[in-house]
Amino acid sequence: MLQIDHLYKNYGKFQAVRDLTLHIPQGDLFGFVGPNGAGKTTTIRMVCGLMLPSAGNIRINGVDALTHRKDIKKQIGYVPDFFGVYDNLKVKEYMDFYGSMYRMHSREIEKISDDLLELVNLSDKKEVFVDTLSRGMKQRLCVARALIHNPALLVLDEPNSGLDPRARVEMKELLLNLRSMGKTIVISSHILSELSEMCNSIGIMDHGNLVAAGRIEDVMEHVFGNNQLIITLEEGREMALRIVSEYAGVKINTAGEHEIRLTHRLTKQEIAKMIGVMIEHDVVVTGFHKQEGDLETLFMRVTEGDAGTEGDAGTEGDAGTEGDAGTEGDAGTGGDAGTGSNNIVGSSPAAGNNAAWKGEEENAVKSHS
Q: What's the pTM?
């Protein structure tokens, strides 16, 4: 659905994004994570047409996003990390305004707006001025606005930033609902626990490089391995250690009074046999399970604990200052077409710049959204 190949963004000698290759299949809820200054927002803006890459290629539903920039914006709904709202408009007027930007008929706008406001739980706020809404309501309204032209791809940059716990839960439920409807969603966030609850795939950036990407469970297994075992016991520690030591390919990492942690190359059958031998020798085994990693531990592991630096060398807070910022410009309706494999391939830094497109930056056209 979204295919990025060998994407670069240079600022003089500084590379904000370096040889990024990524495939996001149709219907995925993809979480984009990384330290401050890693290049997440820069990548998102290039995907949305807000910023031109120095080199590389972006395709959405098979359409080249760089050579068909005007058409491709019909396929994208973008929710930036700041509110794209007009305080002097009522909620209904706000939706009407954006619908008219996509040259939709008034009856079509009214019907779709009603459906979307119900989806984001704002149906009772139609006649309320936008500036009286809470921060969470404004953010949900931005999501409704981004969906009014039925885009194939919904992109959200830090949508939960500054929201209270209840508003975060409401946003999570909304995104899960959209995912169940088949929408392809890309979301960047620093709240890793929430991403792990919502997303089925992730990409982790660090210093402009995509250091890991794929289905969450696949990335976890690749980083942590599938060979960590924890055995808990009530008594018989010494006998348990003696039995474990008799198995080739097993390494004892830690041996506490009631817990033994192993690294192993055993099959499930061999593990079951080993536990059975322990029980036969009067070891009171109370449980055993594979050690699981979490998204926060994964993030720290692949970024080596580097907190990064603030801003992409001045690019991360720079919305709409380069390229054609008018993502909400000429539009119609975009379908949810397109299929893709479940493979998401991450790139590592590459020498040379063998990308498919190069070009000069265009003058900025600031977008209200």
A: 0.70
Burial class (CB in 10 A: 0-12, 13-18, 19+), 354: exposed
Q: Which residues of 125-141 are buried (b: 16+ CB within 10 A; e: fewer)?
A: beeeebeebeebbbbbb
Residue 141 DSSP SS3:
helix
Our measurement of the distance from residue 260's CA atom to the centroid of its chain's CA atoms, rounded to an integer in Å, reads 35
Distance CA 36, CA 15 (A): 15
Is residue 9 a contact partner of residue 39, using CB atoms and an 8 Å limit? yes
Please tell me the distance from the alpha carbon of residue 167 to that of residue 293, in angstroms, as a whole number: 28
The residues that bridge with 205 in the sheet, in sequence order, are 210
The residue that leads in pLDDT, 315 or 111, is 111
More confidently predicted of 2 and 218: 2
Q: Evaluate if residue 123 carries a pLDDT over 60.
A: yes
* CB 50, CB 327: distance < 8 Å: yes
Q: What SS3 class is residue 94?
A: helix
Cα(47)–Cα(359) distance, rounded to whole angstroms? 15
Report CA-CA distances (Å) from 342 to 26, 214, 350: 9, 8, 24
Note the Cα 208 to chain centre separation in Å.
Answer: 16
Q: Nearest Cα to 264, choosing from 299, 280, 288?
A: 288
Q: Which residues contact 305 (CB under 8 A, 6 or more apart)?
A: none
